[in-house]
């Protein structure tokens, strides 16, 4: 089965390198010319694409593959799907983006189902920095697909000697775990940036996990999915690592540092979407509210952290 990856940023490039171990891979990028010329993405410096990766700027050619990985930022996913004229009948569309679409408050699987109803949607998510995958370091991810048979086929196709995929049929749980952990990672970065300490960060991670589980299960996810790679696993990685852009964003906000708007920070928009979704569903998401306040409403970080501490005492 042929594989194409749409999106020539850090993650698309890393996946192309890793999956080329299994056979030829097509990598489509919006700005393909420099990638074709240098075989390197500026988003993933120092990683050169192997010869078995064909880089193209021709979207129609790329989507002729049977399995198509979607590796663009979440807020670009619906636009990218709209650009593809082909109904992609029978193909597997594997979303690798982590977030919630702000316009529709939907995750990637629903966007795919609306745009390409004759395709099968799947999610590839879990704790993994692009640089680790590209350098062949061991990584374990969740491959979620509502169809057990299709999920098993994708699991086999997309696993490599160093990229170990676990299968799940809980698409909602897998995609929400990946989306929501980015919001909590911003809060953890802010906590460390303010100098509040590692104990406070552990508290934020734990209460953040409760918040993630509350919203996800309300939307039909299984709690055990949130406890797996796509939820707890990715939360642990992203909330504690300087490699995380979401964590660094929160830390920079707290320190009053300049923010580079070109860097992909999925949790910022996702926090807004989460707050809107939580209000609609009547689910309490105080950490997501705090992140929206500091990222979009100009609330000073110390006050937003104080708001969290000032909430009424409650049972765990
Ligand atoms: N970088 C990482 O370590 C990981 C990233 N992810 C997820 O992968 C997704 C993509 O992230 P990265 O590759 O890291 O971001 P990135 O910022 O490195 O690259 C994003 C790429 O998407 C392209 N792009 C943006 N809008 C587009 C559009 N409308 N059409 C075509 N191309 C478009 C940009 O030109 C850029 O090349 C995100 O949802 C992220 O959460 C998931 C796991 C790990
Ligand atoms: O999703 C990731 C790790 O699993 C990457 O995190 P950042 O987007 O915060 O860099």
Question: Helix and strand succession?
Answer: EHEHEHEHEHEHEHEHHHHHHHH
Q: Class by helix and strand content?
A: alpha/beta
| Model regions low in confidence, pLDDT < 50 over at least 5 residues | none
The bound ligands are:
1,4-dihydronicotinamide adenine dinucleotide, 1,3-dihydroxyacetonephosphate
Helices, by number, come to: 15
Write out the strand line-up for the largest beta sheet, numbering strands in chain order. 3-2-1-4-5-6-7-8
- Percentage of residues in helical conformation: 40-55%
- Could you give the distance between the termini? 48 Å
- Give the number of DSSP strands: 8
Overall 3D geometry? globular
- Beta-strand content: 5-15%
């Amino acid at each position: 089965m042929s594989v194409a990856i749409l999106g020539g940023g850090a993650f698309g490039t890393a996946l192309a390198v890793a999956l080329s171990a299994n056979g030829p891979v097509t990598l489509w990028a919006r700005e393909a010319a420099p990638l074709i010329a240098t075989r390197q993405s500026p988003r993933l410096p120092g990683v050169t694409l192997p010869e078995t990766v064909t880089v193209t700027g021709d979207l129609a050619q790329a989507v002729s593959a049977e399995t198509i990985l979607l590796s663009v930022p979440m807020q670009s996913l619906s636009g990218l799907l709209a650009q593809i004229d082909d109904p992609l009948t029978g193909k597997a569309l594997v979303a690798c983006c982590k977030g919630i679409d702000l316009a529709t408050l939907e995750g990637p699987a629903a966007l795919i189902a609306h745009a390409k109803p004759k395709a099968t949607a799947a999610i590839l998510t879990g704790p993994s920095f692009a640089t680790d995958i590209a350098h062949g370091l061991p990584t374990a991810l969740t491959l979620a697909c509502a169809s057990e048979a299709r999920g098993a086929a994708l699991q086999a196709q997309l696993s490599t000697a160093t990229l170990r995929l676990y299968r799940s049929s809980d698409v909602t749980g897998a995609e929400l775990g990946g989306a929501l952990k980015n919001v909590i990672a911003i809060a953890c970065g802010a906590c460390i940036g303010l100098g509040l300490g590692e104990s406070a960060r552990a508290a934020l991670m734990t209460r953040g996990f409760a918040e993630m589980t509350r919203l996800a299960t309300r939307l039909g996810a299984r709690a055990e999915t949130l406890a797996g790679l796509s939820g707890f696993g990715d939360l642990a990685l992203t909330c504690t690592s300087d490699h995380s852009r979401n964590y660094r964003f929160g830390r920079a906000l707290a320190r009053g540092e300049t923010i580079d708007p070109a860097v992909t920070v999925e949790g910022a928009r996702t926090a807004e979407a989460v707050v809107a979704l939580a209000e609609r569903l009547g689910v309490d998401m105080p950490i997501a509210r705090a992140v929206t306040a500091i990222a979009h409403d100009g609330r000073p970080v110390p006050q937003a952290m104080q708001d969290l501490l000032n909430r009424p005492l409650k049972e765990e």
